[in-house]
Each structure stands twice: as structure tokens, then as C-alpha cells.
Design brief:
alpha/beta; binds fe (ii) ion; 10 strands; 4-stranded mixed sheet
């Protein structure tokens, strides 16, 4: 097993957040306000930091200076190629550009050796995953991905990824997803099965959380059925994800799933519970969630 920084301090916490969307000034203020509780805290950032390369760099640089270790997995927004972004790379070259940026900042990416959390609640292998989606979370009544997409189109639900997230050099987003799943699955299978994992992905690994979406057709852009049992197969003590902008804790097969998104300012206004700054992943805080 590959080992990079190992947290051992007794007061250290493994914390998580996603969907910082720093394009919004209120979200930038939120990021500026984030501070670790101890100098040994780690932070998992599960994607959708922003769209513009400079914004992503700003946020990850700031966080990497404050937290002992920052681990990042890309969301769909980081992979958009926006006309206003001086970085016009598309698809995989854009992803790899962001990986290089993270390495300059000391931020761990899905392309790096998985670090081991050795602090309270550990040991646990922290596995940032980049898997994308393949439209296989089809809405009820649909039999195939194409059928599901057609229904989503009829309902007027189309993710902006269709315009801005290019799969280059893969022929499709499905093909890129398939390639990511194959290589990631191989890496996870090589881990010591006795050591628990924290699986961290922007997209939910299972379908169930998407059933809470206001527009169920949007599930097509939320994950892949190929990962439905990874939390069991790869001995997860927790699964961290975002993308849905529905922050909550649920349990599946005895495994804790944490949706940790900050989301858009208007979404926070509509929620009847105040946004929690950062979610504690380890040590488990003792609440059963759900
Ligand atoms: Fe998001
Ligand atoms: Fe997203």
C-alpha cells in the first residue's frame, strides 16, 4: 500500500466538504472563513470547487496552506471548458492540468498514492476517486441509458455538462467513465482488504441518494451502476460525495454515506437548517445519521 502523509495527533480530525462553487462571492467568503480546529486536521474536497482554473487554484491554495493535508477529487464543474477561462483544455487534458496544479500545491489527487489516515478513527486509506457518470441511473420506467436521456430531454432536464464537459480524447462521457472505473477498480482491489477505506467521489457511488432529487431525471448525470457495491467490496468505513447539493448522512449496508456539499447561496437560504461548515468523517462523531 502506498503511504503519504500520516496524521497521528490525538486531536486530529478528518473533515470534508464539496461543491464550494467559489464563483459565487458568498461562497468565496465561506472558503475564506474555513479554518482547521487543529493544525493536524485533514480536509477532503469532493469536487465542484469552481469552473475557472484560476478560481480552483485560489481555493485549493488557500485550503492547502491551512490544513495539514488536502485531498481533492474533481467534480463536473472543474471539467467544464468555459469560454471565459484562459485555460481552454478539454476533457482529460484539462483534468490532468488540474492534477498538475494540485501537485504544485501539495494537494492529493486521484492520480496520487492513496494517503493513510492514522489519526483518531484510523487507520483508513483515503481514496479520492474520479469516475464521472454513464447515464445508467435511469429514471423509473426507462430501460436503457438512451431511453432515460430521452425522458430527461422531454422533461426539460439537461445537464450543462452536455455543452461544456468534453470527453476528449474519449468518444463519449460514458467511455471516459468506463475507463476511469476500470483503472480505479484495479487500484482499489490492490489495497490491503484488512484496512478500512474512506471512498471519496464527487458523484454518489450508489443510486439511492439521487431518489431525493427534485428532478429525478437529473440522476442520469449523477453516477454509474458499476460502483453499486464498492462501499462493501472495498471495506469502506465512510463514503464521501457531493454533486446533489442535498447535504445529509445516510447508511447503506452498514456504511455511512456523507453528502457534504455547500452548494449555491440560494439553496442555503431555502434550507431550514443552517449550513454546517465542515463534516467530520473521522473519528466518527457517534451520531447514527439518517
Ligand atoms: Fe455542485
Ligand atoms: Fe457537480
Amino acid at each position: 500500500m502506498s503511504c503519504v502523509p500520516i496524521a497521528r495527533a490525538t486531536d486530529a480530525k478528518l473533515l470534508a466538504v464539496s461543491d464550494l462553487h467559489v464563483t459565487y462571492s458568498k461562497n468565496r467568503e465561506f472558503v475564506e472563513s474555513l479554518r482547521p480546529e487543529s493544525e493536524s486536521d485533514w480536509l477532503l474536497v469532493a469536487g465542484d470547487v469552481g469552473e475557472m482554473a484560476a478560481d480552483i487554484e485560489w481555493a485549493l491554495r488557500l485550503l492547502s496552506r491551512r490544513f495539514a493535508t488536502v485531498v481533492w477529487a474533481p467534480g463536473n464543474h472543474e471539467l467544464w471548458t468555459c469560454r471565459a477561462d484562459p485555460v481552454q483544455l478539454r476533457g482529460e487534458p484539462r483534468y490532468l492540468h488540474l492534477v498538475r496544479l494540485c501537485r504544485r500545491l501539495g494537494v492529493v489527487t486521484p492520480e496520487d498514492p492513496y494517503p493513510v489516515w492514522g489519526g483518531p478513527g484510523g487507520p483508513a486509506v483515503i481514496a479520492p476517486l474520479f469516475l464521472l457518470y454513464d447515464y445508467s441511473f435511469v429514471p423509473s420506467g426507462a430501460m436503457t441509458a438512451a431511453d432515460g436521456l430521452a425522458r430527461a430531454c422531454e422533461a426539460g432536464v439537461v445537464c450543462t455538462d452536455e455543452i461544456l464537459l468534453h470527453p476528449d480524447p474519449y468518444p463519449s462521457r460514458q467511455a471516459w467513465c468506463r475507463a476511469r472505473v476500470v483503472t480505479t477498480e484495479r487500484r482499489l482491489a490492490d489495497l490491503d482488504p484488512r484496512v478500512p477505506t474512506v471512498l471519496m467521489s464527487h458523484f454518489p457511488l450508489i443510486r439511492e441518494p439521487t431518489l431525493r432529487l427534485r428532478y429525478p431525471e437529473f440522476a442520469a448525470w449523477c453516477g454509474t451502476t458499476r460502483t453499486f457495491d464498492w462501499h462493501v467490496r472495498f471495506n469502506a468505513t465512510a463514503v464521501v460525495y457531493g454533486h446533489l447539493h442535498i447535504p445529509l448522512t445516510t447508511w447503506h449496508d452498514g456504511v455511512r454515506f456523507e453528502e457534504v456539499s455547500l452548494g449555491y447561496p440560494e439553496e442555503r437560504q431555502q434550507r431550514d437548517v443552517p449550513a454546517v461548515a465542515l463534516r467530520q468523517i473521522l473519528p466518527a462523531d457517534g451520531s447514527s445519521g439518517d
